[in-house]
């Protein structure tokens, strides 16, 4: 994961909060309704307290008959019922909103990864990216569900209670008004610490996740090199770090709640003491007799005046946690990813490069043009992200439609890098690559990714609608049929992640068949015959010959046979000298 962007400034916090709020946009109305339910339920405390005070006053002190209790008890029942319904509806709406926002965030992060492309992805730790879309996204739930709702409540409920209390007794109103600001001040102080602690905890979680995934993948190597105990110790250390950091976050969360509980209790106690002394006749600040129902009404409402603040305090560390998660997302993506409401897998098309969408969105449409593509590379300089020097500098080449070109050069000279750029995965630092927009481009790389599933499933990834006949033809041309016919379940044989269960050469041939199924107008091949014996190589090239009329082919290779098959060659220029 890259270094965190400038993080603790107010600007960064505002930017991250805005980003969090933007994710809520499609469900804003529903979220407002959830807040409205909660606020209405809060307001209903006022008639509820009035009904209780009224009933107790009638029953205990006015000694009225049961008839006098009828009205207050009806009012009490009505407010209780209404509050229950409102709280239930509000929580349902909240749960809906949270589920939708988190799903959108996950899809959006997957889209952001897809948009940055395979070259960016190669430099990341997949475990850490997985942690982002699971633990980090989950960490924002409390912001939408708890914090925002509590904030709306805090803005509207205490004011209403304060007005009601002032109307009943201005001294109690004054006590509430004067003690109210203490809470936000303490919350702010505690919230700052909570955000830093939250970030540390999430970073530890992502690091441990990435470490664990890496080690799982390399389990065979760990065994071969006898590193089992050392690795176990490291996993233990990482887990301990998470425990310590989680406890720190919890400590701050409990502290913030405890501080608020304390202030709320002291303020309610003040109100109770004031009423106690007034009723005992030891204090007379009002100059007029204080009816018991007024005292009861204010005493019942005082704790409710602080309740939204207590809830906000309980949810305040949720906000800090959410901001910490967004800060980590920002660091991982070198900026906050734009999460569009459209398809999450829409790729970004780099500047100076045309036809990029085709390689990701290539589909088989019989009506689409099958004209071979022309490729023009003009004064292009290619540099890997974060590399000090370019791999290729000011290169130019032109490939006619339907032509075949072999990229030839020593290992590390930049052949794969050029193919990445032609596929649209690496944006040129300067110059331009022109390929007609909408061109269907397919790339069969050196380290093809095969998913866990059947060989047929792996072939259909780019062409879900391909018929069985098309599948069989692609498999035959790529020489997949040769080894598949030996397997017990043929094309339905299940292979493991990364093509586990296939040899290196077999995995490449599956990747080639997958590329052929796209019926590309431009086919990019990276050492397609690297692991093949000469006979299989010759058969593959002959089959490709017959299968590929009308397709432009650019192939990176060290094989004389492939060079001869292509006919034309382009020698990669000598590497750029690195200044000492
Ligand atoms: N993500 C990366 N960041 C920095 N440098 C990279 C990255 N990927 C590759 N390189 C470097 O770019 C150079 C060109 O690599 P590339 O894979 O294009 O060579 P190649 O000609 O295809 O080699 P081979 O024939 O061995 O496949 C190499 O020096 C390599 O170390």
UniProtKB/TrEMBL annotation:
GO molecular function list: ATP binding
Q: Which residues form the ABC transporter domain?
A: 375-578
Q: Which ranges carry the ABC transmembrane type-1 domain? A: 34-321
Compartment(s) where it occurs, according to its Swiss-Prot or TrEMBL record: Cell membrane
Q: Which UniProt keywords apply?
A: ATP-binding, Membrane, Nucleotide-binding, Transmembrane, Transmembrane helix
Name of one Pfam family that matches: ABC_membrane
Keyword Membrane, does the record have it? yes
PANTHER family reported in the protein's UniProt record: ATP-BINDING CASSETTE SUB-FAMILY B (PTHR24221), GLUTATHIONE_L-CYSTEINE TRANSPORT SYSTEM ATP-BINDING_PERMEASE PROTEIN CYDD (PTHR24221:SF261)
Indicate the transmembrane segments per the record: 35-56, 68-89, 155-178, 252-277, 289-307
The record gives the membrane topology as: Multi-pass membrane protein
State the protein's name.
Answer: ATP-binding cassette subfamily C protein CydD
Native organism is Luteimonas terrae
Q: What is its main location?
A: membrane
Identify the InterPro entries for this entry: AAA+_ATPase (IPR003593), ABC1_TM_dom (IPR011527), ABC1_TM_sf (IPR036640), ABC_transporter-like_ATP-bd (IPR003439), ABC_transporter-like_CS (IPR017871), ABC_transptr_CydD (IPR014216), P-loop_NTPase (IPR027417), Type_1_exporter (IPR039421)
Top-level taxon in the UniProt lineage: Bacteria
Q: Which CDD domains match?
A: ABC_6TM_AarD_CydD
Q: Which SMART domains match?
A: AAA
């Amino acid at each position: 994961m890259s270094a965190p962007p400038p993080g603790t400034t107010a600007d960064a916090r505002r930017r991250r909060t805005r980003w969090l709020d933007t994710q809520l946009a499609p469900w804003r109305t529903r979220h407002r309704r959830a807040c409205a339910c909660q606020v209405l339920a809060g307001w209903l405390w006022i008639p509820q307290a009035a009904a209780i005070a009224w009933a107790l006053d009638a029953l205990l002190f006015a000694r009225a008959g049961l008839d006098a209790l009828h009205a207050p008890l009806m009012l009490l029942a009505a407010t209780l019922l209404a509050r229950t319904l409102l709280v239930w509806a509000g929580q349902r709406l909240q749960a809906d909103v949270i589920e939708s926002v988190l799903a959108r965030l996950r899809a959006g992060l997957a889209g952001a990864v897809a948009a940055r492309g395979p070259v960016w992805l190669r430099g990341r730790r997949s475990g850490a990216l997985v942690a982002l879309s699971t633990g980090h996204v989950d960490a924002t739930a409390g912001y939408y569900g708890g914090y925002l709702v509590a904030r709306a409540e805090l803005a509207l409920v205490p004011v209403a209670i304060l007005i009601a209390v002032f109307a009943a007794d201005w001294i109690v109103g004054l006590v509430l008004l004067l003690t109210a600001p203490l809470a936000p001040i303490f919350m702010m102080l505690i919230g700052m610490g909570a955000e830093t602690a939250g970030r540390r905890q999430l970073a530890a979680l992502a690091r441990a996740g990435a470490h664990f995934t890496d080690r799982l993948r390399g389990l065979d190597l760990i065994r071969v090199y006898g590193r089992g105990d050392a690795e176990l110790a490291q996993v233990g250390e990482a887990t301990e770090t998470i425990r310590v950091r989680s406890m720190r976050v919890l400590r701050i969360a409990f502290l913030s709640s405890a501080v608020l509980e304390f202030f709320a209790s002291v303020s309610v106690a003040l109100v109770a003491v004031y009423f106690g002394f007034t009723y005992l006749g030891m204090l007379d600040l009002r100059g007029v007799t204080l009816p018991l129902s007024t005292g009861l009404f204010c005493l019942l409402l005082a704790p409710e005046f602080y309740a939204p603040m207590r809830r906000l305090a309980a949810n305040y560390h949720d906000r800090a946690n959410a901001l910490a998660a967004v800060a980590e997302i920002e660091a991982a993506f070198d900026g906050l990813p734009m999460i569009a409401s459209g398809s999450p897998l829409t790729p970004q098309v780099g500047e100076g490069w045309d036809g990029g969408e085709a390689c990701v969105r290539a589909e088989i449409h019989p009506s689409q043009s099958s004209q071979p593509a022309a490729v023009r590379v003009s004064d292009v300089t290619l540099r890997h992200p974060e590399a000090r020097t370019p791999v290729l500098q000011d290169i130019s080449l032109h490939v006619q439609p339907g032509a075949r070109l072999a990229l030839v050069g020593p290992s590390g000279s930049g052949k794969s890098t050029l193919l990445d750029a032609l596929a649209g995965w690496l944006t040129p630092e300067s110059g331009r690559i022109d390929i007609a927009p909408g061109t269907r481009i397919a790339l069969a790389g050196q380290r093809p990714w095969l998913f866990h599933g059947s060989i047929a499933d792996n072939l259909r990834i780019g062409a879900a609608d391909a018929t069985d006949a098309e599948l069989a033809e692609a498999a035959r041309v790529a020489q997949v049929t040769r080894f598949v016919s030996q397997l017990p379940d043929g094309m339905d044989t299940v292979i493991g992640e990364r093509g586990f269960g296939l040899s290196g050469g077999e995995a490449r041939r599956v990747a080639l068949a997958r590329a052929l199924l796209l019926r590309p107008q431009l086919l990019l091949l990276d050492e397609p015959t690297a692991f093949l014996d000469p006979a299989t190589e010759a058969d593959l090239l002959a089959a490709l010959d017959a299968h590929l009329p009308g397709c432009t082919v650019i192939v990176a290779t060290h094989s004389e046979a492939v060079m001869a098959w292509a006919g034309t060659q382009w020698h990669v220029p000598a590497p750029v000298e690195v200044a000492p």
